Amino acid sequence: MDAWLIWLLEVIRAHCGDKPVIINSGYRCKKHNTEVGGTKESQHLHGEAADIRVQGLNEYESLAKWLRENILTDWGGIGIGKNYIHIDLRETKTTWRY
């Protein structure tokens, strides 16, 4: 995994009161990425993305908002799911919902 992504995960952990951050999906090889329906350009293929959940966190809209306002202000991908959030290091600012 990219060092900046690890740093970002640590920032999220600290922001969430040092609660455990569980990585559901990090780096993916091409075969696994295809099996899980990832895009051909997935940041997971480069170790620059993670799908995570934070222990005890029940919604991810507020975390996404905080990230966009404070850390990923003009870059990075944020995908908001019901039970997890996707974060990545892409150069363009992109937000979506699953």
Calculate the terminal CA-CA distance, rounded to whole Å.
Answer: 23 Å
**From the coordinates shown, what is the CATH architecture?**
2-Layer Sandwich
SSE string, helix = H, strand = E? HEHEHEEE
Largest sheet: 5 strands, mixed
- How many domains? 1
- Poorly predicted ranges (pLDDT <50, ≥5 residues)? none
Q: If helices are DSSP runs of H or I spanning 4 or more residues, what is the number of helices?
A: 3
Number of strands: 5
CATH secondary-structure class: Alpha Beta
Radius of gyration from the CA trace?
Answer: 13 Å
Q: Which percent range fits the helix content? A: 25-40%
What would the CATH topology be? Muramoyl-pentapeptide Carboxypeptidase, domain 2
Structural class based on helices, strands and sheet pairing: alpha+beta
Classify the beta-strand content into a percent band.
15-25%
Enumerate the strands of the largest sheet in spatial order, edge to edge or round the barrel.
1-2-4-3-5
Task: Average the pLDDT over all residues and give the rounded result.
Answer: 97
What's the overall geometry?
globular
